[in-house]
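Researcher: We plan to redesign the surface later, but first we want a full-length starting point. Tokens attached.
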């Protein structure tokens, strides 16, 4: 067992050495740290309150606020890491943050919506952000959370290149909580857009270096290479558990977040506040205006939108084609049929001629019943 533990420690040390060699080279210009100060402006004076080193932000009635910081000296590439520590007084609605930065010429770069929700202690590898470089005029942090709640800004600082900062950002990635999204149904990559390393290749390096260390130590002690399969299994198990525990933490955090969002709600309330809330509410309002015997055609070129909309229309008589034409052949259409047109779609409605334009097919006479957001409900003549 002692040999296994020693091999794992040597494997971790070798992996950290490899990470340090792959890091951006440090220079006198990019090893400093810079705490950012919020600039005084009219937009901020109404909801900012400073108490010592802390700043309290009160979100508006829509649950949003924007903090503008003076840019640090030098180019942004001198600061490949950012540390963010925020604390929200609301536990019901999770706090979200989006980072913007503006160049000296006044142009605003692409925003980065912070995926990791561990905002109370978060290191971000900003060198992974597209466009992070050059001289900046300001940096802006947009917050979104519970309306009229307060957010305490403990710190927002930029840091130079160092092994310690790289390890801190990897730790933030390792214990990250990223809310559920469509891709979560099939995979959990364990990374965000700013992650420097994937967990699986990282642990594969630890395993290979540990395995090599075990074989070398075993050969040095016994004067010949003689591997014990139980020791090799323990090394593999330790690396696998490290990966699995990070995944289990993500699942447990998701369970807790799901409970906060949906516990005690009816089926209708769950759908109205779930990830499809906007789509569900749109379809429900259009469904309520349909007669019970209506035949409804769901037209959308997006599989997910079409499938979920058809499901929310049940128990109506619904037609939706998976990866096929959005509309059935004209011979199957009847007067009084309804068409629910949802973006994105290849169909277009001409209000002057009251016709539904279908690619590579004759137009269909139809009246517009409802148009709301990205959807339209039409009735065939």
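Model: Full-length starting sequence:
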């Amino acid at each position: 067992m002692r040999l296994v533990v020693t091999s794992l420690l040597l494997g971790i040390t070798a992996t950290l050495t490899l990470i340090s060699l792959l890091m951006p080279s440090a220079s006198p210009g990019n090893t400093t740290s810079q705490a950012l100060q919020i600039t005084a402006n009219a937009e901020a004076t109404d909801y900012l309150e400073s108490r010592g080193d802390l700043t309290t932000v009160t979100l508006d009635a829509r649950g949003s606020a924007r903090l503008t910081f003076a840019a640090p000296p030098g180019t942004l590439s001198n600061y490949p890491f950012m540390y963010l520590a925020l604390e929200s007084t609301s536990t019901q609605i999770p706090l979200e943050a989006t980072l913007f930065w503006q160049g000296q010429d006044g142009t605003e770069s692409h925003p980065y919506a912070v995926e990791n929700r561990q905002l109370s202690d978060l290191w971000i590898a900003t060198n992974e952000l597209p466009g992070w470089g050059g001289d900046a005029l300001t940096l802006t942090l947009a917050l979104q959370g519970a309306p009229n709640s307060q957010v305490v800004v403990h710190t927002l600082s930029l840091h130079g290149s160092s092994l310690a900062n790289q390890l801190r950002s990897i730790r933030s990635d390792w214990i990250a909580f990223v809310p559920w999204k469509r891709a979560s149904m099939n995979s959990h990559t364990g990374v965000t857009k700013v992650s420097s390393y994937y967990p699986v290749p990282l642990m594969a390096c630890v395993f290979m270096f540990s395995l090599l260390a075990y074989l070398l130590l075993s050969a040095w002690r016994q004067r010949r290479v003689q591997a014990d399969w139980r020791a090799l299994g323990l090394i593999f198990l330790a690396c696998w558990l490290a990966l699995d525990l990070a995944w289990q933490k993500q699942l447990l955090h998701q369970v807790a977040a799901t409970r906060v969002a949906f516990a005690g709600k009816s089926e209708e309330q769950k759908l109205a506040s779930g990830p499809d809330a906007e789509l569900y509410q749109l379809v429900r309002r259009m469904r309520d205006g349909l007669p019970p015997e209506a035949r409804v055609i769901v037209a959308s070129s997006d599989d997910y939108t079409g499938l979920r909309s058809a499901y929310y229309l049940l128990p109506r008589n619904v037609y939706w084609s998976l990866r096929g034409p959005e509309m059935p052949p004209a011979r199957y259409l009847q007067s009084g049929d309804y068409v629910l047109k949802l973006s994105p779609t290849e169909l277009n409605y001409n209000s002057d001629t009251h016709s539904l334009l279908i690619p590579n097919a004759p137009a269909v006479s139809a009246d517009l019943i409802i148009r709301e957001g990205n959807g339209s409900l039409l009735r065939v003549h």
